[in-house]
């Protein structure tokens, strides 16, 4: 399941259950790397790509299996910034010169509210059943509360059913489990880019499933387009292209609200994407982990579970967790809702390895049923704090003359630092990222999200004011230095939108455009700070 790159490939097994071990080991390269008879003469330029997570794999470890070497390689290659941060973490007293983490998507704004709620007496219940093996789908009392919670907050047209709920220790486990039970080794999911890059590992490490990219870009081509806009046409072209490259696509992954863009899909867009999947008999995994972190009311968030009709309920699988919306990324609670009982049972079987303790299940049930605290205390204050932090960082970036997409959901801004690259390459992007890390501020670079345009970064704003202020000071210092270095360097030849003015761009986006107050040189290109508010 975790193959090493090989010079020669062999034909893939037709059925995973009947394949030999060696067939499975070599299938990753066969399933997606070979040419298909119907492959066109020329690839559709820039519209799609088929990922190869181990294309740069190398290992000299002799004590690990091939699977073990690939797993270790992922850790070594993909966690550099996170590991560096934990070795030199900022602390106001103990390590004031440590790294400020504006790269990891966590909500650090509401610990006071959460600690008080989680310390109340109803959270401390211990009963014999909580110390024994549970139903692997989750205790019935928890699945009932999850169904009620999702029915209420997703505004489902009919009450959701507890038997369609499975609980696991977070969305990473859910992605891994769903990829394993829905796909054969070597098959693929379509996913629009940029996307939360860890999904690459989630679907590959157990299931040997790859991602087929639907490349989106910042170009605004007319009055009905927006930066990084997903359309059904782009899905169709990417599916056609990935199939022509030999990929067998089994599903589509949607993130709503979107990470890292911070926007949301309208009901019409969701119906279009789900209709596309139904036509091609594709599963759809919808990650709604930020659904209660929409702090701009004008966005009008809509859950897939709130649609009047799902085109293909048996192939639609929705996940949610407390990691983001409740700032509990360390507690590891996630849930799957699917009407497909075969999928639910298969995922539940994997809960033997990804389940929750009985005590945590009891706590989560108590939390989810406390509608008064959620609606009257937590959500209003959380949204207020997110909005204030978002406003502060937005104004700082505007003062720096840095363009960005200003969404109203999640914990992040998608920031355009292309003008600070000497050349428009991913090598230059990585050099800028390292320069920031050396200056003790961690951001996430665009290549980690498979963004096709070098120079975009994700910046997290859901942190305390003193850390945000120091992080933005360090960012400013680096960008001022880079601005001097790139002053005489010609701008990169990245395609730009043909519209002629900021007002036209704003109208094209259907959003308000707030021009940055440039203190570090003019922004290259008119894609500016778009607020995702419908005019």
UniProtKB/TrEMBL annotation:
Transmembrane segments: none
Coiled coil (residue ranges): none
Aminotransferase class I/classII large domain ranges (all copies): 100-461
Comp. bias regions, Basic and acidic residues: 32-42
GO process terms (BP): amino acid metabolic process
GO molecular-function terms, A-Z: pyridoxal phosphate binding; transaminase activity
Keywords from the named record: Pyridoxal phosphate
Stored InterPro entries: Aminotransferase_I/II_large, Ethylene_sulfur-biosynth, PyrdxlP-dep_Trfase, PyrdxlP-dep_Trfase_major, PyrdxlP-dep_Trfase_small
Region span, Disordered: 26-45, 481-501
Protein name per the record: 1-aminocyclopropane-1-carboxylate synthase-like protein 1 isoform X2
Organism per entry: Octodon degus (Degu)
Gene name for this UniProt entry: LOC101560679
């Amino acid at each position: 399941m975790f193959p090493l790159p090989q010079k020669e490939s062999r034909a893939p097994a037709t059925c995973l259950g009947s394949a030999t071990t060696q067939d499975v080991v070599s299938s990753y390269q066969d399933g997606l790397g070979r040419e298909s008879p119907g492959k066109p003469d020329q690839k559709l330029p820039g519209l799609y790509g088929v990922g190869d997570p181990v294309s740069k794999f190398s290992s000299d470890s002799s004590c690990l299996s091939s699977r073990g070497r690939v797993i270790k390689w992922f850790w070594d290659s993909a966690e550099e910034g996170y590991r560096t941060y934990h070795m030199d973490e900022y602390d106001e007293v103990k390590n004031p010169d440590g790294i400020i983490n504006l790269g990891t998507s966590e909500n650090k704004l509401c610990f006071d509210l959460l600690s008080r709620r989680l310390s109340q007496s109803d959270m401390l219940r211990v009963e014999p059943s909580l110390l024994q093996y549970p139903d692997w789908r989750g205790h019935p009392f928890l699945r009932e509360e999850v169904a009620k919670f999702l029915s209420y907050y997703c505004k489902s047209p009919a009450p959701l059913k507890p038997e369609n709920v499975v609980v696991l220790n977070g969305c990473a486990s859910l992605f891994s489990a769903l990829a394993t039970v829905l796909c054969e080794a070597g098959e693929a999911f379509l996913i629009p880019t940029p996307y939360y890059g860890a999904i690459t590992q989630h679907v590959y490490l157990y299931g040997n499933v790859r991602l087929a990219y639907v490349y989106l870009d910042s170009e605004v081509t007319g009055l009905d387009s927006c930066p990084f806009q997903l359309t059904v046409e782009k899905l169709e072209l990417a599916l056609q292209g990935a199939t022509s490259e030999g990929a067998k696509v089994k599903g589509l992954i949607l993130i709503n609200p979107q990470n890292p863009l911070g926007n949301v899909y309208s009901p019409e867009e969701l119906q279009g994407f789900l209709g596309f999947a139904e036509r091609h008999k594709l599963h759809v995994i919808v990650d709604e982990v930020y659904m209660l972190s929409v702090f701009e009311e004008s966005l009008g968030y809509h859950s897939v579970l709130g649609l009047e009709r799902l085109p293909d309920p048996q192939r639609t699988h929705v996940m949610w967790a407390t990691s983001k919306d409740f700032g509990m990324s360390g507690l590891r609670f996630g849930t799957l809702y699917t009407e497909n009982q075969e999928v639910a049972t298969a995922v539940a079987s994997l809960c033997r390895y990804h389940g929750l303790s009985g005590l945590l299940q009891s706590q989560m049930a108590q939390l989810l049923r406390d509608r008064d605290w959620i609606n009257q205390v937590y959500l209003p204050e959380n949204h207020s704090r997110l909005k204030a932090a978002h406003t502060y960082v937005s104004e700082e970036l505007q003062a720096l003359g840095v363009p960005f997409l200003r969404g109203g959901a999640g914990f992040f801004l998608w920031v355009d630092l292309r003008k600070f690259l000497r050349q428009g390459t991913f090598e230059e992007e990585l050099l800028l990222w390292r320069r920031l890390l050396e200056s003790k501020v961690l951001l996430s670079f665009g290549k980690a999200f498979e963004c096709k345009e070098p120079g975009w970064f994700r910046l997290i704003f859901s942190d305390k004011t003193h850390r945000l202020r120091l992080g933005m000071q360090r960012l400013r210092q680096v960008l001022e230095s880079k601005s001097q270095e790139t002053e005489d360097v010609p701008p990169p030849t990245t395609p730009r939108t043909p519209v002629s003015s900021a007002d036209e761009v704003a109208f094209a986006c259907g959003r308000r455009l707030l021009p940055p107050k440039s203190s570090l040189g003019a922004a290259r290109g008119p894609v500016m700070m778009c607020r995702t508010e419908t005019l």
